[in-house]
Amino acid sequence: MSKSRALVTGAAGFLGSHLCDALLGEGYSVVAVDNLLTGRQANLEHLRNDSRFEFRQLDINQPFDVGKVDYVFHFACPASPVDYMVHGILTLKVGSVGTFHALDIAHKYGAKYFISSTSECYGDPLEHPQKETYWGNVNPIGPRSVYDEAKRFGEALTMAYHRYHKVDTRIVRIFNTYGPRMQLNDGRVVPNFMKQALRGEDLTVYGDGSQTRSFCYVSDEIDGFIRLSKSDEHLPTNIGNPTEFTILECARRVLAVTGSKSSIRYEPLPQDDPKQRRPDITKAKTLLGWEPKIDLETGLKMSLEYFKKAAFEDQGTRK
Ligand code: UDP
Question: Residue 295 contacts by C-beta under 8 Å, 6 or more apart in sequence?
Fold first, then answer.
C-alpha cells in the first residue's frame, strides 16, 4: 500500500515526468494528468507497468476530478519561450483557469499543494542575483507576458487559496533546468545547441551572446522540489543553480562536450530576452539544506546519450 496519493498535472512534460519518478521513489502512488499539448507520453512510457502509476489524458482547463489525493503538484504549462509564444492564450488559460482547478482539488480533499513557478517572475531583472523578495521587472504586455503574467497570477492565486481557504501551499521558482527528456525542438538553448552541435549545424547564438543564464541539472532541481514539498514554507523559494554563464560560454561548453566542429552563427535577440539571470539560493540552502551538486560540464555529459539519440530520431513537430 502506498503511503499517499499524489496528483501531478503536466506529468508528461520534462519536469513533470521526472517528478513522477521521484514521487514514486518517495513511496507515493501517482495519478498523472496531461493534455499532451507540449508533453510526450514517451516520457512516461517506463512507468506504464507500475501498479502505483496511472496516466489520464485530460485538459485541466476543464473542471476535473481524479478522486481523493493527498498532494497536488501543479506543473501543467507550456514552458519554453517558443512553446508559450505559439500557445499564448492557452498558457494564460492554464496559469489562471487550470490553476483554479488544481487548487480546487487541493481545497476539496484537504491536500497539500505545490505549484511550479518560474524565474520569469523576475522578468528582465534589475536586481542581480535574484532573491525571492525581488518583485521583478516584467513587461506586462510584451511577447513573454503570456507566460510571465500567467505564472505571476498563479502565484497570487496560490497565496490567495492559502490565505482565504487555508490550503497548505508551496511555490517553487524554477530557473533554467536541462537534462534528458527535454524536447529537442522546444527552442530552449540547451536542446538547440546540443542538437545543432551533434548534427554538425551552426549553433545559433541570439544577440551577441553576452546575456547570462544559470543552468541546473534536472536531478538537482527535482531534489530541491522534493525537499520543498516536505517543508512548511508557503512563500516562493528559488531552486536553481547559481553558477552563471554567458550564452556564448554555454555554446562553447556544448561544443567541448560533444566534440563538435560546428561554428557559431549570430541571430537577432528576441524581444524582452532577459539580459541576466542567476538565483540567490540562500533561502533554499538555509531552509532545505539544498544546493546543486552537478556542474554544467558534468550535466551536459550526463545528458549526451539522450541528446545523441534524440538528435537523430523524429520527435515530431510541435502542435
Ligand atoms: N538562446 C540562444 N540560442 C538558441 C536558443 C536560445 O542564444 O538557439 C538564448 C536566448 O535568447 C536566451 C537564452 O539563450 O537568452 C536562454 O533561452 P531559453 O529559450 O533556453 O530560455 P529563457 O531563459 O530565455 O526562458
Answer: 243
